[in-house]
Design goal:
This protein is α+β, with helices and mostly antiparallel strands. 31% of the residues lie in helices and 28% in strands. The strands form three sheets. Strands 5, 6, 7, 8 and 9 form a five-stranded antiparallel β-sheet that branches. Strands 1-2-3-4 form a four-stranded antiparallel β-sheet. The longest helix has 15 residues. It is elongated and about 70 Å long.
């Protein structure tokens, strides 16, 4: 989570939207009432202190946005309605860092007595650090391709990019020197979705995974994803060896020296200083 941000809440309860969502044709034809509950996580202190609406998120506008979106689109599942509503809020209101969205459907065609069915999700922006490396062809061009890829999709906000550093190869494979750097992004993607996209970007740069630690046109690695600690067959966060790589810690210390490693407990600046001192 973004610990430097206050997590105040703006709540909207039981917004009544008459819309046309459902698996069955009659649901799309006739429509029905949906009730929307929202929790917008944000920082309201500035607005509260200065009594200025521009420093907050206009909940009336949010209600109209949600209503318009739900009435202008049709989906089979309320899961999809919830996902798209959350995305619209997070994309259009920069002061909102995360949102709870509940879509309640009291007239669902179940054929049994019930109160309502609903889907509730939590979605938000995540701060991520991604390492970039290249040692084949036009290295700067390939690194810039990696940076530009973060501008192509609405689910990303590119925040910072370090300077490029030339470094010796890591891992013992004979090859050319690398250019390396790190970028800070904010994303709506999950770690696995992000990994899949980074692999797509690498492939667009003709990346070949033939030799472990071998030469590559473009290498993109997730270093940190919020304070997440996870291990799977395809992805480990934080990056398993980042504390031993000066070509990672140098750029991290440049753009985010205060960020703390969620396992080791040291900041990027401290890790880099420790590595540099031997």
């Amino acid at each position: 989570m973004r610990q430097q941000k206050a997590w105040d809440e703006i709540r909207i309860d039981d917004l009544d939207v008459y819309a046309h969502h459902g698996v069955f044709p009659e649901e799309k034809e006739k429509g029905q009432h949906f009730y929307v509950n929202l929790v917008l996580y944000t920082d309201t202190r500035g607005a509260g202190q200065k009594d200025e609406l521009t420093l907050s998120t206009h909940y009336g506008e949010v209600c109209h946005l949600v209503t318009k979106w739900m009435q202008e689109h049709q989906y089979d599942l309320i899961e999809t309605v919830a996902e798209t509503v959350a995305e619209q809020i997070l994309l259009q209101y920069p002061l909102v860092w995360a949102a709870d969205v509940e879509i309640r459907k009291p007239q669902a065609p179940i054929g049994l007595p019930f109160g309502s069915v609903s889907v509730r999700i939590h979605r938000g922006w995540h701060r991520v650090y991604v390492a970039l490396g290249s040692n084949m062809g036009d290295r700067k061009k390939y690194l810039q391709m990696g940076v530009n890829a973060m501008r192509r999709r609405k689910e990303f906000r590119l925040k910072k990019v370090s300077s490029w550093q030339q470094t010796k190869p890591y891992g013992g494979v004979e090859q050319e020197d690398f250019l390396n750097g790190v970028m800070e992004i904010e994303t709506l993607l999950t770690p696995r979705e992000l990994l899949e996209y980074l692999h797509e970007v690498e492939q667009s740069a003709d990346r070949k995974r033939e030799v472990h630690w071998g030469p590559r046109t473009l290498d993109l690695d997730i270093l940190l994803y919020d304070d997440l600690v996870m291990e799977s067959e395809e992805l480990i966060i934080p990056h398993v060896d980042m504390q031993n790589r000066d070509f990672v810690l140098g750029p991290m210390a440049e753009i985010a020296p205060w960020v703390r490693h969620p396992v080791l407990g040291l900041t990027m600046g401290q890790l880099y200083a420790r590595l540099a001192s031997g």
